[in-house]
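Fold it.
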Amino acid sequence: MLINGDFSRRALVHAERIDWIASPARGVDRRMLFRIGAEKARATSIVRYAAGSRFARHEHPGGEEFLVLDGTFQDESGDFPAGSYVRNPPGTGHAPGSDGGCVIFVKLWQFRQGDGERIVRLPGEGGSWRLRPGAASSKVLFDADGERVLLEDWQAGGTVEVENPDGLELLVLSGGFTESGDVLDRWTWLRLPAGQPLRATAGEDGARVWMKAGRLLHDDVCPFEGAAEAEEKSR
């Protein structure tokens, strides 16, 4: 399966307008934003857990990064309410689920080889980052090895510009903004290739945005069987 596999092109998905697709676990559905591969894949998705649903315990050889969008996500390590950001490095595993139901934004098999640090940021945690024009707040969730993850609030009607030397990925958490003639509302996902800067105008309610800056696919990304062939076809 190949969804938005060309990293040289701008990619935009209004996630709330596409269908949910059932996962192998009963009660767990996905909206696929980016995917290279079949069930084992490099993937970026929005995943919905019905109340009481869960996956059997499994490993993440290529790492897992997620942000809880709604409800409370749970696994053996604890409860993660909406706003929690977690990086489970390659080689970790868990049995995820949700007693009350939840929705998460998740990226799979996109870690560097050798990245062994687990990161947990509960709601409100993270360091302050310098404010760009048009931003009311900026919090850094992760910053290492040329990869930076931020949570920003943009002022209503504000113009926000972000340089993009290496690649940029955004998810609208609330509110919205306009970019390149498109209106991006809640849970819209945008990926911009290296060299294409972001020029955005926040809507009348402002915008809360999750944003990652850095290489869209690391040179030393964790490999898996069949990945090289699938990625070659995407070029």
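Residues 112 and 220 are 5 Å apart (CA to CA).
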